[in-house]
């Protein structure tokens, strides 16, 4: 079967600095892949290449077999099909929650307001945010804001969700509620590529874990194998440092 996402020998330079060094990775539909590795290893850059927030230099990335720079995705089609959520939730402070989450679907993807708001309210309800549709971001906790940011990425019905350290800015007691939502998305079959430092979460949510160092995937495997019995001494050293 065609992988949902296929990354084929992708190379990326920032200036003369090699940041991705021939990365290949296939992600099947409904698969959850976690990327782990030290700061600077290229995790965010790889994620951003997948939905073209960053352009790479060599190699190819395909979505359902189609190169991501293919004209058929148009200017915004790829971003609708591949959602991304960041560590900093990037909500507009002057906009109510409902307007934050329906802005892109309405203005960029042409979804009618009523339809976008229906779906937004449904998702907000599902994520325990039903009472906050008319709140402003500053009235919400960090965990609630991050849940809103996840809803925002889901309103456009993406096929793939990219999550870049989405719990890293949260107080410890708020991390669990966001991870719970991601587990729920997995249960519903969402295809996800997740950068995380939460090894417990990677262990029970990922189908596969990839360890990056110096812009390469040094080792990958099922979480139980990679996190408990890594073969590469560098993976072992990384895990010993952070656990
Ligand atoms: P990670 O997410 O694993 O911490 P990044 O992908 O953010 O790693 O960064 C990989 C390398 O690329 C780092 O050395 C970083 O400094 C560099 N880098 C990232 N983004 C840029 C950028 N926009 N311009 C120049 N260098 C960058
Ligand atoms: Mg990063």
UniProtKB/TrEMBL annotation:
Localization per Swiss-Prot or TrEMBL: Cell membrane
Every ABC transporter domain range: 5-239
GO cellular component, as recorded: plasma membrane
Pfam families referenced in this protein's UniProt entry, alphabetically: ABC_tran (PF00005)
UniProt similarity note: Belongs to the ABC transporter superfamily.
Lineage: superkingdom: Bacteria
Keyword match Ribosomal protein: no
Topology of this chain in the membrane: Peripheral membrane protein
Official protein name in the record: Amino acid ABC transporter ATP-binding protein
MF terms (GO), sorted A to Z: ABC-type amino acid transporter activity; ATP binding; ATP hydrolysis activity
The keyword DNA repair belongs to this UniProt entry's keyword annotation: no
């Amino acid at each position: 079967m065609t992988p949902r996402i296929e990354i084929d020998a992708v190379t990326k330079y920032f200036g003369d600095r090699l940041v991705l060094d021939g990365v290949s990775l296939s992600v099947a539909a409904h698969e959850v892949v976690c990327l782990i590795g030290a700061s600077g290893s290229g995790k965010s850059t790889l994620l951003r290449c997948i939905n073209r927030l960053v352009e790479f230099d060599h190699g190819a990335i395909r979505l359902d077999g189609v190169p991501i720079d293919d004209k058929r995705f148009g200017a915004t089609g790829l971003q609708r099909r591949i959602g991304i959520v960041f560590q900093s939730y990037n909500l507009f402070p002057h906009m109510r929650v409902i307007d934050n989450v329906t802005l892109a679907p309405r203005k960029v993807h042409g979804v009618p307001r009523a339809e976008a708001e229906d779906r937004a309210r449904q998702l907000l309800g599902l994520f325990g945010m039903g009472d906050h549709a008319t709140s402003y971001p500053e009235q919400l906790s960090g965990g609630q804001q991050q849940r809103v940011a996840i809803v925002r990425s889901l309103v456009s019905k993406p096929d793939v969700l990219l999550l870049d350290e989405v719990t890293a800015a949260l107080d410890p007691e708020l991390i669990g509620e966001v991870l719970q939502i991601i587990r729920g998305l997995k249960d519903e079959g969402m295809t996800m590529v997740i950068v995380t430092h939460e090894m417990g979460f990677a262990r029970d949510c990922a189908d596969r874990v990839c360890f990056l160092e110096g812009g390469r995937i040094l080792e990958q495997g099922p979480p139980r194998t990679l996190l408990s019995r890594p073969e590469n001494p560098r993976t072992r050293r990384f895990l010993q440092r952070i656990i």
